[in-house]
Amino acid sequence: MGEAGLLRRLIAGIGGLALATTLSQFPEYAQQYTQRLGGAVDELRVIAEEFDRAAAEGGLDRQAALQRFNASNDDFLAGRGNSMSATFQRYDMLSATLAQIEGAGPVERLQSLPAYLDSDIGRRTLENYKPAMPVTMEGILYAGSGFILGYLVLSALVRLIGMPFRRRGRGRIRVTRT
User: Fold this and answer.
1) What is the DSSP code (8-state) at residue 110?
2) Cross-referenced Pfam families, in alphabetical order (predicted)?
3) Alpha-carbon span 34 to 106, nearest angstrom
4) pLDDT tens readout for residues 137-147
5) Dist CA 80 CA 136 (whole Å)
6) Domain ranges of the chain
7) SS (H, E, C) 94-108
8) 40, 67, 82, 108: most buried, per Cβ within 10 A?
């Protein structure tokens, strides 16, 4: 193997290691995100249950209580009704997301990554993310896939970039006149 082939393999290996390191962190991010999401859902559940309990004590269900808030001429009470409606919507959305994540496999979680990053919780998770060594089977599989993918992509890229610089006529026999 020539120097060019060795250099190509070295660059491809570095690319493979970089992508392996990056992808191996996804399961840890997903776990930290799921913990934060679960905490948010638990807190919103407490708020929803307290509201429903107070409404029931007043002989109302949730919708009737919200309608009473919204029908009020008092701006504060009407605003409180709007705020509670938004809280219930967020609770429903986050609960559905948590159920989806908990029921998803490793590939499905990776495909959902853009949804994680677009949310407030996903952004805060990323801001406070602590890298971890992947010792789970999922982490090892992501690392292995990342290495293979990174190696192949960079190897192909180096070959493509190097094509114009290859010596032409390699393998041809030169005939010299004496």
Assistant:
1) H
2) DUF2937 (PF11157)
3) 13
4) 887 888 888 88
5) 46
6) 1-25+135-163, 39-130
7) HHHHHHHHHCCCHHH
8) 40
